[in-house]
Amino acid sequence: MNKLMRWMGIIGLTLFLSAPAMAEDLLMARTDNAFPEAMTLLQSAISSHGYKITRLQEVNENLAKRQFKSDMYRVVYFGKYDEIKQVTAKYPELIPFLPLSITIFAEGDQAILVANHPRMLETFFPDPALKPTFERWEKDMVTIMDEVRESK
Prior knowledge:
Order of helices and strands: HEHEHEHEEHH
Strand order of the largest sheet: 1-5-4-3-2
Low-confidence stretches: 12-22
Number of helices: 6
Helix content: 40-55%
Distance between the termini: 49 Å
Largest sheet: 5 strands, antiparallel
Shape: globular
Number of strands: 5
Structural class: alpha+beta
């Protein structure tokens, strides 16, 4: 019985330590594509889902001020103009959270994508009328990130 308990403990610990890190309010994906290719794939995936890229923000200057050297770190802002206009007209408190964004950066020969989880907005904006919008944003962002992750 002692051996069985010990083996169960070892298996449990192994499973716990091998589980991916979770961040409830973040969506994350890693791609084997190098940063330039991943950036192109990301922009293409965003456009193919009907979104317009509104801005590409380079954050290199601020990183350099903190002694972090990378020219491969961008924030991609995107949205659907009419949708954002309509949602913010009814819910102006959503303005700071829009347009949607995905951060992409290089890590060695790979790229990592990170975004705030759109469904976390439900915590701050519990209006049931917004739930379908948040769910669609979640579905679209997950699909966009999966497309970049799975592309070769």
